[in-house]
Amino acid sequence: MKLLAVDTSTPACSAALSIDGEITENYQLAPKKHTQLILPMIDEMMAEAQLKPQQLDAVAFGCGPGSFTGVRIATGVIQGIAFACDLPVVPVSTLASIAQFHFNQADCKHAFVAMDARMGEIFWGVYQRNQQDFAELQGKEAVTPATDIVFPDVIGDGLGTGWESYQQELQSVLGPRINDIDASCLPHACAVAQLGVEGFRQEKAVPVEQALPVYLRNKVAKKESER
Questions:
Q1: pLDDT class of 217 with cuts at 50, 70, 90
Q2: CATH no. for residue 150?
Q3: Of 159, 78, 176, nearest in space to 125 by CA
Q4: Cα angle: 165, vertex 66, 186; to 5 degrees
């Protein structure tokens, strides 16, 4: 199984290649440089693996939520590769990839993932580690004020940039359910690749025309009068 994954949904830019379960990643924290970095990252990884895109079984991408421009960059790159090589695509939630990356590093069963969505809101999702050690969504992902979050009665870690911007509000709602907080945790393509391979195994891959970004928010900007 050979799968290429990318994520550009936040200031982090990364690409990863999974070959029979072995994952390599190229990751940089490089705000506003995604368009300059992502294609050379992919080319470098494919060259090192001595692979051509046509030899891939599938591709995966961080489909959002996240930066409007960043999510569109990853979508466009993956759509281009998939269309040119007739490959199936596995969309992977950026919130899920944050949880998965943390599960890979820490002994944690649940993750409260909050990304700063601007406009006084967060992108929110609660994930649990399933029996196969994959991040599994509990309930629904949402864009919401930090004080209006919906969550199950579980104990876990707080992850993502939303915990830096709205830590007081989130902790006041969640109370003792939070063990540790990592506000610096960002999506990684290696986690996207991991979830992408599992999604492919579960037949969640879609044709390229159905590989679309997920914004959660219907409007990505507000008029001055609405602010």
A1: confident
A2: 3.30.420.40
A3: 159
A4: 65
